[in-house]
Amino acid sequence: MVDSKMQPHKRVAFVLIDGLGDVSIPRFGYKTPLEAAKVPNLDAIASAGVNGLMDPVEVGLGCGSDTAHLSIMGYDPRVYYRGRGAFESMGAGLAMAPGDIAFKLYLEKLAVNFLLDGNLWLDILTPFHENFKV
């Protein structure tokens, strides 16, 4: 038996690039933007590692990144997932207590109908967002 104190620690770099999937673009020769991009450092990391596609929760179940990340880290999202609002609020440092309810609201989508130019949404959204109280 080998003494565990003598075993060197193995180090792992776990790189998860979320949202990288895309569709092919005709002007890129029907490649995705990532396939067309010049990314030598990312290519080097990918060629030295293990790559692939996975179904993080169960085979054939399409899920969002919130449930996929929980599953990849070993948590069953059917047990631990409490919705995107709670997930995002805790990620922002807001405490969640039993009985609390959190919603995720895309305020930008409310402002899209009012766009007159590329910057106007900030004028509409920012004052609303800064004064928004829960």
Automatic annotation (TrEMBL):
One Pfam family linked to the record: PhosphMutase
InterPro entries assigned to the protein according to its UniProt record, in alphabetical order: Alkaline_phosphatase_core_sf, Pglycerate_mutase_ApgM
Protein name (database record): 2,3-bisphosphoglycerate-independent phosphoglycerate mutase
